[in-house]
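Hey everyone, long-time lurker, first post.

I ran two proteins through the pipeline my lab uses and got sequence/structure pairs for each. Pasting them in order. The first:
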Amino acid sequence: MAARHRNRLREEAPHLVGIGTEPEFAIGQRALLLRSPDGNLLWDCITFLDEKTIGTIKARGGIRAIAISHPHFYSAMVEWSEQFDAQIFLHAKDRHWVMRKSPRIQFWEDTMLHLWDGLMLINCGGHFEGGTVLHWPAGANGKGALLTGDIIQVVQDRRYVSFMRSYPNLIPLGATAVDHILKTIEPFPFDQIYGAWWKANVLSDAKAAVRRSAERYLRWINA
């Protein structure tokens, strides 16, 4: 890959840096480096990692830990963790999807896991039992933000999101799973959502967008 690809780092928001590979590789997702006073968190992962990327991230404070929304983005997480001496947080419900074992992986089991600086991992399920989103209370100028991967998928109309069992096969989640996602994230304030791809972001009124989207979704799958 080093002969044909490079990584691009771009500011997605204050203290939030997107990291994506060009030309696109596989499904073309980008990771997010959340810069926080007590340590940086890498949210989700990409496959390609080169010396330039390592140096650029170290210049921005390195990576204290890696947290991943679901197994589709496990990617080269162990290589990333070794380069930055970082811990990896994965939900225990997805333990059997880990193909490369590492002592750096910490499996957590509850609905929520407190990290640092108010950061919170939330297990809300979705297209994997261990599906996780990250609540960033300092995001959106203190109004709160969610980093969701595609557990809560930002769609082309940025006023809406969606919830799928299988994106490649266009199989929707059932009503019970969607209702569980809504109830799990309800206690958390957030005005923005940052999804799994470049520009896949809801930049205002995101909590209302999730609620509105779920109502529309449930109305049609129950029709």
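...and the second, right after it:
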Amino acid sequence: MRIFIDSADLDEIREACSWGVVDGATTNPSLIKAAVDRRKGQIAMKEYIQAILRAVPGPVSLEVTALRADEMVAQAERLHGMFSPHGQPVIKIPVNPHVGESGDVPDYDGLRAIRRLSGEGIPTNATLVMTPEQALLAAKAGATYASPFAGRVDDLIRERRGLRVGVGFQKGDYFDPHPIRRIVEGQLGAGAGAPPTPRLPQWNRIGEFARGSHDNGVYGGVDLVRRILRIYRNYGYGTQVIAASMRNPRQVREVAELGVHVATVPFPVLAEMLRHPKTEDGVRAFTADTVPAYKELFEQK
């Protein structure tokens, strides 16, 4: 599995790349804003992004801000032309740029942009993928990468269970869908021989519990990644899956176990992947137990 650093902070990116484990980077307008805010607006944007590309030993995703296909393609061409001399820019396109009833952008303009850019040889990253269906269409449109947002799907399911971030759970908390899935599928499976009816209160309760426990059959972010990988492998799509919105090390481990192509990991989560209390205990003990004669080996000329 390749690891991309999910950051637009040049200091974080350089530090993570110095560890020798980073293969690329992903940015977005929100991450760019955070980097600008940290520097109190003192950024020459073009030179700053050039520095990111030079620091990263692989692809760097840069996102368009337009929502219509023609404008997204024009911005993508500009970004690719401007930054390809400095590294490997990949253009992020929202898989569906429609923003609700107030907007007049059609659902499919992201796919249209991806198809056109694919024909021009410009690599693309279909972003904000929340369903296997979106990922399937992104692959058929020719996306180089598709980025399912695992953490945001976990958030959605927790919110449907009545929890709220900062109150019922913290953003970095691990979400384990397996107990809920076993309850739902076990209970519904037990009644397969006798179809439930609305007159049975227990089936009403099970149905209500089931509806709030998944997103159209997807039981969590890792499950979303699993289903996309299965579809891509079924049909031999060349699109690579970037597991995005990684919130904690266990989530990263689980998508690695699935065989995902890439996980894009925020700097704090990447650092946390190295930590374990028994590792710290071991370092402490080995350091304390070092005998003088062994220390002298490092001091001799």
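Reply from user beta_strand_b:
Welcome! Quick read of the second one: Residues 2-162+218-296 form a domain with the TIM Barrel fold (CATH 3.20.20.70). DSSP finds 14 helices and eight strands in the chain.
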